[in-house]
Amino acid sequence: MTQISTDDAIDTLDAPYTLTAFDRCDSCGAQAYIKVTMASGELLFCAHHGAKFKEKLSATALNWHDESARLLEDSRA
Question: Domain limits of the chain?
Answer without folding.
Answer: 18-76
